[in-house]
Design a protein that fits this description.
Layout lengths: L15 H6 L10 E8 L5 E3 L7 E3 L4 H10 L4 E7 L16 H12 L4 E6 L12 E3 L2 E3 H18 L3 E4 L6 H11 L8 E6 L6 H7 L19 H13 L3 E5 L5 H10 L4 E5 L1 H12 L5 H15 L3 E4 L2 H8 L3
Parallel strand pairs: 1-3, 1-4, 1-12, 4-5, 5-8, 9-10, 10-11, 11-12
Antiparallel strand pairs: 2-3, 6-7
Length: 326
């Protein structure tokens, strides 16, 4: 290999156009999905204290937000619902007139080109805050599956373009696939939260979605953070059950897992830049400790560089503005 002084790596870093010419990873607004929190009611806009810039919206305000995203060329949203009624079974999750179902129909009426994904999990809908049916203090995997399947079907019936189970119950992808197919929705894809870790980075989300467990934690069903090989098994199982896209969550502490999944599976791959990651950046930016734009774009680029095709991020709107050609 030619060495210094004949070879000078800095030559191709000298100017912005030269750097752009040889850039290996290109972040694009088309890679982004914007999470939205929908709350029951009318004309409601609720501030989330731990997530500056993010709000809960009632379904009637969702179309305006969707129109803004469409103008910014953000291609997709994922919806999380906060119902008024919660019970042990999370029954409102399947209500055809439920809060997420209302939001899906509103978006599809006013901004039909926007891709609508829905989170499929019971934690926002149960009075105990866990992701499934609780029996004698433990989440019962098999009793939860039909509820998740019916929830996904109700989202498809309302007009969702894709459903995204995030509960981490074993077998839920197959249960949802079979239910969608039997219900006439063979063409609705499933984005599986295949490798979802029991992470401390979810704290702000639990305030936003009002979904904190009322007892215990979720370590018995979400993945143990030290495990990486296990993530590959989870991804493989979900692909075999019928997932059309798989996800690693959170993104930043698990970039190594994201890279391993990318190298092993030639499959559409998403990563979730979660609430805690977002809120830390916002807090530091408000203190004046960091250049927010530079940090956000560097973070999103690192997720793309690690192998993600799709990035779910609360930074989507601002990133879209920053990535817009001058």
């Amino acid at each position: 290999m030619t060495a210094f002084p004949q070879l000078r790596m800095r030559r191709m870093r000298r100017t912005d156009p030269l750097r752009a010419l040889v850039r290996e990873t290109r972040l694009d607004v088309g890679d982004l999905v914007y999470p939205m929190f929908v709350v029951e009611g009318h004309d409601l806009r609720q501030v989330i204290s731990s997530m500056p810039g993010i709000e809960r919206l009632s379904p009637d305000l969702v179309p305006a937000e969707a129109e803004e995203l469409a103008r910014l060329k953000v291609p997709a949203v994922i919806l999380f619902g906060i119902p008024q009624h919660k019970d042990a079974q999370g029954t409102s999750a399947c209500d055809p007139k439920g809060v997420v179902q209302q939001a899906i129909r509103a978006i599809k009426k006013y901004v039909p080109e926007l891709i609508v994904l829905t989170d499929v999990c019971l934690c926002e809908y149960t009075d105990h805050g866990h992701c499934g049916v609780v029996v004698e203090g433990c989440v019962d995997n098999d009793l939860t599956l039909p509820l998740l399947a019916r929830m996904a079907l109700s989202h498809a019936e309302a007009g969702a373009d894709m459903v995204a189970p995030s509960d981490m119950m074993d077998g839920r992808v197959r249960a949802i696939r079979e239910c969608l197919d039997a219900g006439g929705f063979k063409d609705i894809p499933i984005l599986s939260y295949a490798a979802k870790y029991a992470s401390g980075f979810y704290g702000p989300f639990r305030e936003a979605a009002e979904s904190a467990p009322q007892f215990g934690d979720r370590r018995s069903y979400q993945m143990d953070p030290p495990n990486a090989r296990e993530a590959l098994r989870e991804v493989e199982l979900d692909i075999k059950e019928g997932a059309d896209m798989v996800m690693v969550k959170p993104a930043l502490p698990y970039l190594d897992v994201l890279r391993r999944v990318r190298e092993k599976f030639d499959y559409p791959l998403a990563a979730y830049n979660v609430s805690g990651e977002y809120s830390m950046v916002k807090a530091a930016a408000q203190k004046g400790w960091i250049d927010e734009q530079r940090i956000v774009l560097e973070i999103l680029t690192s997720i793309k560089r690690a192998g993600a095709d799709v990035i779910l991020t609360y930074h989507a709107k601002e990133a879209a503005r920053w990535l817009r050609p001058a």
